[in-house]
Fold this protein.
Amino acid sequence: MIPAPVRYARATSLEHAFQLLAEPDSKILAGGQSLIPVMKLRIARPSLVVDISQLELRGIDVRGDELHVGALTTWDELLDARELERPALAAIGECVRGIGDLQVRNRGTVGGSLAHADPASDMPAVLLALGATLQLRSPEGERDLRVAEFFAGPFTTALSAQELITHIVVPLPAPGSGSAYVSVEHPASGFALAGAAALVGRDGVSRVAVTGVAGQPSLLVSGDPHEALEAAEIFGDRFASAEYRRELASVLVRRAVERAAERTKGDA
Amino acid sequence: MSEAHIGVARPRIDAPDKVTGATKFGADGYVHGLLHARLVLSTEAHARIRAIHGDDALSVPGVVAVLTAADLPTATTGTDRAAEPLAREEVVFAGQPVAMVVAETEAAAEDGAEVVMVELETLPPVVDLEDAMRPGSALARLVEKAEGGSDLESIHAGVDHGQEDAEQEQLSANVLDRVQRKNGDAAAALDASEVVVFGTFRTPWVYQAYLEPQVATTWLEPSGTLVVSTGTQGSFVSRKELARAFGLPLDRVRVVAEPLGGSFGGKLALIEPLAAGATLALRRPVRLVLTRGEDFLATNPASAQVTHLRVGARKDGTFTGIEARMLVDRGTNAGWGVEGITSSLLVGPYRWEAHDIVGYGIQTNRFTFGAYRAPGAPTAAFALESLLDELAEKLGIDPIEIRLRNAVVEGDIGISGNAYPTIGAVEVLERIREHPLWSARASLPENEGIGFAAGYWPGGNEPAAAICRVDTDGTMTVVTSSVDMSGVDTGFAVIAAAAFGLDPNKVRVVFADTATGPYSGASGGSKVTYTVGKAVEGAARAARVKVLAAASQELEIAPDDLEVVDGVVRAIGAPDRSITVEEIVGKALRYGGRYEPIEGHGGSAQTRGAPSVAAHLSHVRVDRDTGEVELLRHVIAQDVGRALNPALVEGQMRGGAAQGMGWALFERLDHDEDGRLLTGSFLDYAIPVAERVPEIDTLIVEVPAPDGPFGAKGIGEAPVVGAAPAISNAVAAATGVRIHELPMTPPRVWQALRQDSGPTETPA
């Protein structure tokens, strides 16, 4: 449980971070809740850890009709945010409350979790359902990427080597919307065996996403989400078969939509 | 003798130090010149070792040595973990230590261990228990080695080893042991029964999941004595195993049992031989602390078991015949397995007209089997109590009532042909039946259920001794060689205080080592309070005789007319004629003193067991769509003989019930087809964390044990036994579906509900 020999550097600015990340085997350290354990197990063995935790990428605010969340915002800060206290964004808090334990939520960051891209991570499903966009920065400049285009497979993203997430931007849903996240956790890891997020508008139209059941979280775009799940490629293992996960996802989608729909009544 | 302090809930003596971090555990002590060891574990379940290359590791700065089996000065050729700390030529499970890197720092040892190259020639792994016992099956161990004579089985339970094998059966050489227990004609009894139920029950390997990973620190005194500071349940057991393993005289091995950060049966001479071997090879102090991952892979969890069981009853609920075949996975443990214990406990605390139970101990390429809180009992109770619930249902008799009609009482003949000693089965069943939760089961919402099950543990006996010494400040020191676990010191203090006549706050308890302490067996089998506690009582009484003799001279009153109350010796009926114990000790412990030191030595050698029965109610809600089982409430009633300290007793009851919840819903060590562990971390292996454990009501039942200190008996193991079947019976009550395999994970429950007919059965 001792990491392989590694160098450490603390970035003082984004530009400094980019310089440090020019080293081929470097790795970004944000809250350390994913990276440090895999380093201690020597599954990850970067030559250099670039600590970005001091960069000013933290905070939650509403700008016009968008919610901006700094990538270094911790889970606990999300739970405390007044900006999220509306039925349309209820899925975020619901999701965060189920993440890790208090210590993990105090240290773990939203951006770090997204960049780690664990296929059973909860938040990606919520951000997909809410139609969120990620703001990315690299030496080449800025770009915006929809969350749906960000994940490329288990622990794999569209981030290039020197690129990092700066903000998560969530378009504020139309008035009268409600959202929800429900999951069944693996009893040991707490990660989702299946998780489903739903955003339901006043008109009853919903957007649904699932996580934990495949190599990456996915938006169930075409028509009936249950039919979409029937056709989806679902992952199975010795703990939970693909058959179970598919059925579970379907149940959770139904529950998430019902709960989100219930919440539409609470949004003035 | 004053019993005023008995039965009073009081805080644990060790709590302040443990809570504030002042307690020194095995990994905390500083030793000058200490080296750190890191293990290299086999990645294959079954293989021949071709070569081990340590050159790269030796070139890591700080690495002192790379040790293999040939480097350790072992003196025996047995296959047990003490005799073969590092695999010699054949690897028999994935996770078996094959080499050890010793370095100046932990980091250097880890860097070195990472680059040790082990060349293995893969052999067919034996991972399927039922296949393993068929004649002609591949063998889990090819190289024959002489047995070294370990006797770890006897530590755990007072059971015999069954009858001589009468029947011939074609079996693979993987079957290391076959135990048959037979009385009457069970088949005929079953044929004549009005109702017969049967089932095949499967339970997985289960990890003890103690908080503190295994640790040992070893060094050589200048005199050449090997000192072993370790988290062990039995210092004398560790000493014996080490002396045997390395061919050392007993007096050249000194084992210091450090406070245990949890153990549950898993810490007995397992890793001490590794550290000791390194110290003997290098003549340097060495510490080995397992990482959690190593602790999962390389230690000794509870066996997987398959039980084919058939039981019958008459219309009035009288149990008739019980027939079973119990397949116990020993992994690589050639020394012992739980087939002896589990086959004797399968009958439960009930009367049967006839029984025929066969237990098989089978070797496979999985782990080394070890003890886990009530070894073999939860697996037996899961099978039996599930079927008894079905019997009750089929006969339309209340599940507790049917057990009451068959519950054993003192004098009934048990499975070994011996009469039961005092046993509180009836009292426990009657007590739990009165709990409001039991009557609530008729009016539950949909998908909720309440289940009942009972379990028992026979207890253990082993002679033990203790010393009580009173100091000039009037305080008493109790010395035993028990180990610091589960608050036994608080129990000893109240026993000594009551037997002598002191306030328990004036008693301090010392855990001595093998060089300095009186004899005590391993802390296992629920026998510490019963046997060592009895010795403490004797020692305190002996000290009391001394103080009375001295006081008699001081007060000029006959000893028989004196009493000791809260540290004061006084005349019975005339309390103003008195002298304090402190004063008397002051007259004894000084140059030219007049009295013998106020010290006593006590011993115990009970031959009668003190079984403890525990019964459970479990209230669950099942989510039919997801398969999740939510525990809503739990009740446990247990016969504890006499609750010396009800707070500690309730702690044991709750802890046992919680571990049983782990058996029921969460815990499973799972291997792939090649025998590699898939669940070797707490990210994969679930335990019942606080948020999943419901409120647990505890009902203490007191049926005094005639030979126990103040009627107390061992209580640590019984509470885990019946918890899982209570939960599975609750799931059956909620859903109508009986699940015969643990743990009842959401996918498994979902599957069972979908099939809606329960698992496929084959007659036993």
Remarks:
- The CA atoms of residues 128 and 148 of chain A lie 6 Å apart.
- The domain at 7-51 of chain A is CATH 3.30.43.10 (Uridine Diphospho-n-acetylenolpyruvylglucosamine Reductase; domain 2).
- Residues 242-264 of chain A form the longest helix (23 residues).
- The first strand of chain A starts at residue 7 and ends at 10.
